Amino acid sequence: MSTTPPAASDDSTTVDIDTKPGSPLPTYVWIIIAVVVGLLAAGLTWLVMRGGSDDVGGTIASPSVVGFTIEEATTTIEGAGLQIGDISLQPSDIENGRILEQNPPAGAQLALGSRIDIVVSGDANPVVPDLLSLNESDAVNALIALGLRAGTITETSSAEEAGQVVAQSVAAGEQVPIGTQVDLRVSNGRVGVADVVGLTAAEAKAALRNEGFKITEQEQESGQPGIVLSQSPEAGADAAVGSTVVITVGKAPEPSPTPTPTPTPTPVSQAVCGRDVLTKAVEDTRSPGDTPVQGLQDYTCVAGWAVAIAQIGDQPDQIVLDRFIFTTDGDNWSRISRNQACADGSDLPDALRPSACSNVVG
Q1: Taking all residues of the chain, what is their mean pLDDT, rounded to a whole number?
Q2: Which residues contact 185 (CB under 8 A, 6 or more apart)?
């Protein structure tokens, strides 16, 4: 009995796609389904993004600002690359300052920089608010909230804080048409320094403090004590509020010290003080017929003065004592009378006064 051998196997795999109802799908089918679904999702996302783009053919979709405040609407419209157009007010039960209508409407394709007109709930003739003391940003927002516009904004020197509104072109409380422009002047936080030279220190300090400056004072000798001699920065210069101004104030010169008088030096005697020299000086004062001088009993020299006690007489038992007072005139001794030597104001040294001025000789 012969047996039919099995057919030779083939390396290729044959897949039977004829599955019975209720059988699980093969893996490759699920992969195909996943790819198709992913492509469909990506396409839908692209279409949605394309359809919502703000730039279709070089245009921008107008944003919806109905119900916004004017400030919110301005931020939104300008943020989209567009501009606020005409603003009109319309009485309404809606809160004042809310957008009632816009033209073009939301979603309209507009060229970059196009204007969107808005209708705002409120009076057609708003009252201009008081903007002084507000900073620039708050002042602009206050105008926008009332349907008004900020016009030209310029900086000006002022002692107020930098950025603060110091003037407005339309007075607060004035009723104006919607869309009216109000120009603003804003402080730059700098002021012109007052001219204080020539003022008293107190006046200068008061003037500078009123302008918002700090003061440093320094002194300089002057014939104008208490008066401002100079200032830095100079008068009229723009300086930041709160900065320091240096003023130089005059002060009376210090009194010159009284010079100590230079004592007149006592002439140094060149005359020799000695027994023989003074004996000769005594003899020179005598006349030829006078009783001879026997010698000196004693003598004393002090600072150009000399007192000599001379022995006068012919015989030793007839000796008398006589006093001679001398002062030097350089190299020589000159006799001076007792009255002159002992008078008040005389230069006679105190050490010689007892011997020179005593009534007793010897």
Answers
A1: 81
A2: 153, 154, 155, 156, 165, 166, 167, 168
